[in-house]
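Need residues for this backbone.
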């Protein structure tokens, strides 16, 4: 953000409404939610809800509040995601701490939670979340199913630290969170009714890695070799050892990968393979059942 941009939002010369309008104009070139971005940053500085500005549009910031806002606004103008700036993102109507050590939870991933709950109404099941990141999937499931026995792992120690922080915040101590390189530290004697993963699935040469929020997210959580399929293949193959008979495996994947993921699962002997669409109508989740005791 250059000085000419800074001078367009001068301290005490503008109301909340005017700051939001000016900020929206500056962010509009790259953000589809420019107005909301400004409201969220202002609300964060003031410790208020964004609805506050509907009631008090003509109020002004103190000098200290203005300086705090501008520091955050400069980061957003450089493209840094709002979630990393305010260190929080809502998922499944729950507040999650986030950090650059993990992916930012996205609405499309709620599809995983939604369908697992729909297809598994049982009150007592075991579930393993692979690559849990902030803990969004595992903790959202735990919030709905208090009796489920849920394990959640991640390769990153920083991610596990963050997920544990979220478990404490959401008062969900029953979720077992620990470091593991996929199944490496998962007890080999354990069996799970459900294994779910939102693994790295983007090809390392994908042009989308250089635009938008993903520029700031950890590559290790985004990129996989073999055209984005390597981790999916590894998980699908290994999961057969850890699934109960008739256990279900769920993947989130890229919208163009559905056919490839279904083929991988069918070649490994999975049954009832199906793909579910996200809220935009794109193929987003593929699930299957593994029958270990075929008659």
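Answer:
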């Amino acid at each position: 953000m250059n000085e000419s941009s800074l001078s367009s939002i001068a301290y005490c010369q503008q109301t909340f409404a005017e700051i939001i309008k000016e900020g929206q104009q500056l962010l509009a070139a790259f953000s589809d939610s420019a107005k909301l971005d400004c409201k969220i940053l202002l609300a964060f500085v003031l410790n208020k809800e964004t609805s506050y500005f509907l009631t008090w549009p003509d109020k002004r910031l103190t000098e200290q509040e203005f300086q705090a806002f501008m520091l955050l606004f400069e980061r957003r103008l450089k493209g840094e995601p709002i979630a990393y700036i305010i260190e929080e993102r809502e998922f499944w109507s729950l507040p999650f701490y986030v950090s650059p050590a993990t992916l930012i939870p996205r609405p499309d991933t709620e599809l995983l939670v939604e369908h697992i709950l729909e297809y598994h109404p049982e009150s007592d099941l075991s579930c393993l979340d692979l690559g849990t990141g902030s803990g969004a999937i595992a903790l959202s499931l735990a919030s709905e199913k208090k009796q489920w026995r849920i394990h959640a792992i991640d390769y990153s120690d920083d991610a596990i630290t963050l997920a544990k922080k979220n478990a404490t915040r959401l008062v969900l101590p029953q979720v077992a969170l620990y470091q593991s390189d996929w199944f490496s530290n998962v007890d080999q004697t354990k069996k799970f009714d459900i294994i779910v993963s939102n693994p790295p699935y983007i090809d390392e040469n994908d042009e989308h890695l250089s635009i938008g929020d993903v520029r700031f997210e950890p590559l290790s959580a985004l990129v996989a070799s073999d055209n984005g399929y390597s981790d999916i293949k590894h998980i699908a193959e290994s999961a057969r050892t850890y699934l109960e008979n008739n256990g279900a495996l769920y993947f989130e994947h890229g919208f163009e990968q559905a056919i490839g993921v279904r083929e991988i699962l069918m070649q490994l002997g999975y049954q009832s393979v199906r793909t579910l669409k996200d809220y935009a109508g794109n193929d987003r989740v593929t699930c299957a059942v593994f029958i270990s005791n075929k008659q």
